[in-house]
Amino acid sequence: MKISGYDVKINGKYHISDGAFCPEQSGTYIEFRGPVRKIEVDIIGRSFGFPAYLAIMIDETDVRYFEVKNGADHQVLYEGDGGKDITVRIIKTTEEQYGTVAIQKLDIEGDVRPTSDRDKRFLFIGDSITCGYGIDGVNGELFTTASENFLKAYPYLLAEKLHADYDTLCWSGDGIISRWIPEEEDIPLRESLIPDLFWKDLQKNAPCSDIWYTHIFVNIGTNDASYTRGIPEREERFAELYRAFLLDVHEAYAAAKVYVVYGVMERSLASVIQKIVRDLKNDGMRIEYLDCSGNYALDAVDGHPSEADHRALAERIIEQGI
């Protein structure tokens, strides 16, 4: 695709608004290769409590992060001598619900070309664990987007390790029957649940017939457990809605194999989720349950997985034979 006249590869969910490139989800990036001397962007940020963050990666090793300020801004993202070809990836490291990004203009000094698409394409559906919530902070600190970093989260690590392109649909605090609620509350929070957001995205992209995935990873249930609390009637309702959601995912992308990931931060719904997956598999669906419980430190912000935890989680998924 062309952005400001340059041919680039786009990975992830995005839209174009008044000619501006707007990455929508954690991990959406543009990538190109060539003898680059300088990269500048005109950018508009909008914060919903916290700013968005971008990173620019040079040859996958040199990573620099940029806070996207509220309103219009101009940033020089890179300067070099242009003496050799480099691969440049400009990636959104934070999630849409906290802050948005619109790249109005991209200026590149040097002849560039898009990098190649990969043979595998993953879809990651999840909550804060998938987003990389709090990964650059420690437990006890208040959350800000400065501590959210998709580059260190298991979906990015997994896709890079297995040489796959990917899309994400991830929202911190979200679930199937309820978003996260504190212990003192007992009413489910049903605003913008995962199935609603999935269908909204699907309908938006319905005219596009070239969307396909080889693997779909669903990591949902941690926030639902804040409401189900071991109560049978609530768990039964969760099971009903989760089963229906997995069937919707399968119907939308029937060629993909679905992997249900669970057990990182809590396990109260493990038996419920395992039974759903077992029943769907017996009915002929290409689906597997990945038991991802383990001895995680969970010492990032709000008791979330640390960078080391995410690396261990990615390895655990690979070990289970995807």
Describe the 3D structure:
The chain has 322 residues and is α+β, with helices and mostly antiparallel strands. It folds into two domains: 2-114, Jelly Rolls, CATH 2.60.120; 120-319, SGNH hydrolase (Rossmann fold, 3-Layer(aba) Sandwich). Helices cover 23% and strands 32% of the residues. The chain contains seven helices and 18 strands. It has helices at 128-131, 154-161, 194-204, 225-228, 232-252, 270-282, 307-319, and strands at residues 2-3, 6-7, 9-11, 14-17, 20-23, 29-34, 38-47, 52-58, 62-68, 71-79, 86-92, 99-109, 113-114, 120-126, 164-170, 215-219, 257-262, 287-291. The strands form five sheets. Strands 3, 6, 8, 9, 11 and 13 form a six-stranded antiparallel β-sheet that branches. A five-stranded parallel β-sheet has the order 15-14-16-17-18, sandwiched between helices. Strands 10-7-12 form a three-stranded antiparallel β-sheet, with no helix packed on it. A hairpin with a 3-residue loop joins strand 8 and strand 9 (62-68). Helix 2 (154-161) crosses helix 7 (307-319). The radius of gyration is 20 Å and the shape is globular. The two termini are 31 Å apart.
Secondary structure elements and their pairing?
Elements: E1 2-3, E2 6-7, E3 9-11, E4 14-17, E5 20-23, E6 29-34, E7 38-47, E8 52-58, E9 62-68, E10 71-79, E11 86-92, E12 99-109, E13 113-114, E14 120-126, H1 128-131, H2 154-161, E15 164-170, H3 194-204, E16 215-219, H4 225-228, H5 232-252, E17 257-262, H6 270-282, E18 287-291, H7 307-319
